[in-house]
Amino acid sequence: MKRLAVPWIAVMVVTGLALLTCSQGAAAVDFPAKGKPITIIVPFAAGGGTDVAARLLASLMEKDLGVPVQIVNRPGAGSQVGVSALATSKPDGYTIGITPFPHTMTTYLDPERKAVFSRSSFEPVGAFFTNPVISSVGAGSPYKTLKEVIDAAKANPGKIKAGATGILGPSHLGLLQLQQVAGLQLAAVQFDGGAPQMTALLGGHIDLATNITPEVMGPSKAGQIRLLGVMDKTESPFLAGVKTFESQGYPVVSTSPVGISAPAGTPKEIVAILAASMKKAVSTTDWKGKMDELGFTTMVPDPSGYAAFWQETEARVKPLMELAKREAAK
Predict the structure, then answer these.
(1) Which residue ranges make up each domain of the chain?
(2) Distances (CA, A) of 306 to 103, 138, 156, 318
(3) Mean pLDDT by 10-residue block, N- to C-terminus, for the chain (330 residues)?
(4) Which CATH architecture has domain 133-254?
């Protein structure tokens, strides 16, 4: 069979196109540019647990990436101000930010909030720590177990006072789930934060509290409260022997994971670089020591895992929105 000759000009063209494609691909992952800072938007005020963790993460990523990584606090409207700023930022990887759960989805799922963002506004990078909701009663409470509280609530609809930290926040969503799965009615009492809620519990003003792990560690060790359950799929490494709600027969999961997202349209290659840097950061001894001190449970950053968790959380939150509104209207 006669071999067909390929014109040399065709070879030159094909080779040139291949080189061009390679150079374009290399340029796409030339991130971050030397000396160009990366900004992480924190949608809460400075000084809180999330801000402290974000600043540590930024310092560790800065060492890894070789460029400045700075924190900008944009608090307001239950994180809506900061998340809105993130959603409308340039999708080049140089502005990323915290998209707190469930605050981000409860904002865009509520038409009254008039959010400028939705799930499609973000490119998930990865979650780096979480806080499960923990239920507790005062040390002098007549209720020794979660079941005893639930039985009392069933026998006295709307009489058991249960604390929460903000409508549609993690603790409130946990209580709404509990009411659904256990078939009971609680009297939700909202507080501005975990500290005033704990003060109310210790003062006997509420029967049941729902706080995150760091808020219960001290009172528990001091013998001031009795821990009844963890609203997560696994037990907390900081609260030995405290069972999950699910293991006690009540499939309730309400956590407060904190993760980083980029604006939609950020190149996948850049997202992968950011996620890899976050993963390195949370594997350091500096990170582990601080998280143990704060009582935060580390999560390994992963874009696809964070996206799946986002979808799962939204599916769990969505049917509770109407229930929360009916409760608030009473």
Answers:
(1) 38-131+256-320, 133-254
(2) 15, 36, 40, 18
(3) 41 41 50 97 91 96 98 94 98 97 93 96 96 96 97 97 90 94 94 91 97 93 98 94 97 92 98 98 96 92 95 90 74
(4) 3-Layer(aba) Sandwich (3.40)
